[in-house]
Amino acid sequence: MSNVLAALDLPWLEDGLARTEHRLRSAVVAEDPYLTEIAGHLIGAGGKRLRPVLAMAAAAAGGCAVTDDVVTGGVAVELVHIGSLYHDDVMDDAEIRRGVPSVNAKWGNLVAILSGDFLLA
C-alpha cells in the first residue's frame, strides 16, 4: 500500500493511515494482556486498511480534513471488520489469515469468538 500512496502523492492519506495504525493498536489494549495479544493478532499482521482509506477519501471528497473524528470512524469500521474475520475463521475452520495462523487455529474457537466479540464491541 505504501508504494501506491507514494505514487499517488497523497501525504494526507499517508498521515491518516499512520494515525489509524497507532489508534488500532491502542484500541485493542485491555486490562488482560492475554486478550490484548489475541485482539491485536491480525492488526499486527497488516492488511490493506481499505475501510479507513475509504473513510478518509470520503472526507477529502467532501472537502473535509482527515480529522481525529475521521480517523476514529475508520478505526471503528476496521475493528468491526477484523472482529468479523475472527468469527468467519471459526465458521470456515480457517488455519491461516493474512499469512499468520488464524486466531482459532492458534488459541481455539472459544477464544476466537470471544476476542472477535471484544473487537466488535
Molecular structure report:
This protein is mainly alpha-helical and 121 residues long. It has one domain: Farnesyl Diphosphate Synthase (Orthogonal Bundle). The chain contains eight helices and two strands; from the N terminus they run H-H-H-H-H-H-E-E-H-H. It has helices spanning 2-8, 11-27, 33-39, 41-44, 50-61, 68-92, 103-107, 109-120; strands spanning 96-97, 100-101. The chain has a two-stranded antiparallel sheet with strand order 1-2. Helix 2 (11-27) packs across helix 5, helix 2 crosses helix 6 (68-92) and helix 6 (68-92) packs antiparallel against helix 8 (109-120). The chain is elongated. The two termini are 28 Å apart.
What would the keywords be for this entry?
121 residues, mainly alpha, Farnesyl Diphosphate Synthase, two-stranded antiparallel ribbon
Task: Kindly summarize this structure in a few lines.
With 121 residues, the protein is mainly alpha-helical. 74% of the residues lie in helices and 3% in strands.
